[in-house]
């Protein structure tokens, strides 16, 4: 029950954050409509996002072959954490190597940073998947992805 509750709360937080951004975009903050707008848009977005995520679950349910819905939620959370974290870690790693945007051309800097994201992502995907109890799923996912990229010789 942890993942459905966590997922619902995170979708509610996301809906609230988006509604507050829209509130500021429309210039309705500090008006009489502020709380009506925030609560209404938050609830509307929450329902829309929950329906969208349930639709996504149905699309990948047969493809991923998981036994429980909470496993799919855990898998989505792992993908989200891994993608964000690998993007965040690539910047300091490029800086540590000594290739800042001040030292090299910005095209070279961003190309190196994007290239570094790939191996960081691969390592983090399996590790964070293991932390969430989905090691086997992500290990199989890694092998399949690397084989499709022509790097399957490492797993033969």
How would you describe what is shown here?
Residues 75-151 form the DUF6787 domain. It holds the Pfam family DUF6787. With 156 residues, this protein is mainly alpha-helical. It has 2 domains: 1-62, no CATH class; 69-149, no CATH class. It is built from 5 helices and no strands. It has helices at 2-25, 34-64, 69-97, 106-131, 135-148.
The structural class is mainly alpha
Share of β-strand residues: under 5%
CA-atom Rg in angstroms: 20 Å
Instruction: Give the terminus-to-terminus CA distance.
Output: 38 Å
> What's the number of domains?
2
Q: Report on the biggest sheet.
A: none
What coarse outline follows from CA principal-axis ratios? Answer: flat
User: Helical element count?
Assistant: 5
Helix fraction bin: over 70%
Low-confidence stretches: none
Order of helices and strands: HHHHH
What is the element layout, followed by pairings?
Blueprint: H1 2-25, H2 34-64, H3 69-97, H4 106-131, H5 135-148
Helix pairs in contact: 1-2, 1-3, 3-4, 4-5
């Amino acid at each position: 029950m942890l993942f459905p509750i966590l997922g619902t709360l995170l979708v509610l937080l996301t809906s609230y954050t988006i509604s507050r951004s829209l509130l500021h975009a429309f210039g309705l903050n500090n008006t009489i409509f502020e709380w009506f707008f925030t609560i209404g848009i938050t609830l509307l977005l929450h329902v829309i996002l929950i329906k969208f995520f349930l639709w996504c679950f149905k699309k990948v349910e047969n493809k991923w072959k998981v036994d429980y819905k909470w496993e799919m939620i855990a898998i989505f959370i792992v993908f989200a954490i891994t993608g964000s974290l690998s993007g965040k870690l690539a910047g300091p790693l490029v800086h540590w190597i000594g290739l800042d945007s001040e030292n090299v051309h910005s095209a070279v800097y961003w190309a190196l940073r994007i290239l570094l994201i790939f191996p960081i992502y691969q390592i983090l995907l399996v590790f964070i998947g293991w932390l969430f109890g989905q090691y086997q799923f992500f290990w199989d996912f890694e092998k399949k992805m690397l084989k499709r990229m022509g790097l399957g010789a490492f797993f033969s």
